[in-house]
Each structure stands twice: as structure tokens, then as C-alpha cells.
Amino acid sequence: MLKSTVKPTEIAIPKDQPSKARDARIKNWDRVAQIIGGDYPSRAAREGIQGTVYVQVVVAIDGRASSCSVKDSSGSKILDDAACNAVERFARFEPALNSYGNRITGTYLQRVSYKLQ
Question: What's the predicted TM-score (pTM) here?
């Protein structure tokens, strides 16, 4: 039986080249905020529920949200769910980059505030 062995190697970036690594960034927050503002969850509005939720989005290499989780709840499942749904559906991102400038899966944290007027 033949066995092949592959040794892991580290590829270092030359010291004279700066790293191109960066976190994922949102491209269209103004648009997403406008959609969220115009689509206040009706049950939350009827019940006078307001709050701020922090959501963490996993951003795929194509710049779309692949999942969303609540990192700090508004105290209302209605608002928390609405925030994740809106971000997953409407937000577009610039994906994270590794030190070579290649797209990688990354995360993005966003605050979403719901206020009745």
C-alpha cells in the first residue's frame, strides 16, 4: 500500500508587503435602514414595542448574508426576527479578505433600532 504524506507549509507574506486582510463591510446600509424603517413589524407597532437589536451576519464570499444571529436582543423576539430577516434579505456586503486579498467568509455586526414615531 502506498502512502502519500503532505506536510503543511506556512506561506509568509513578505515583510515589505502590507496585509490586505479586512473584515466584511456592508455596502447598502442606507437602503436597508430605509426598508426597515418603512416596514415596522405590525404586531410590535400595535403593542408599542421598541428596541435595539445587534445582529451578527455571516457574509459569504459572494457578498450575501448566509446566516444571521442575534448577539444582543432588543427584548422582543418580533423585533429580533425582523432585524435578521431584513438584513439577510436586503443587505449586500463586501466580503472579508485574507492577508493576500482573497475573498473569505467573514462576519459583520450591525445595530438595528426600532422606534415608534
Answer: 0.79
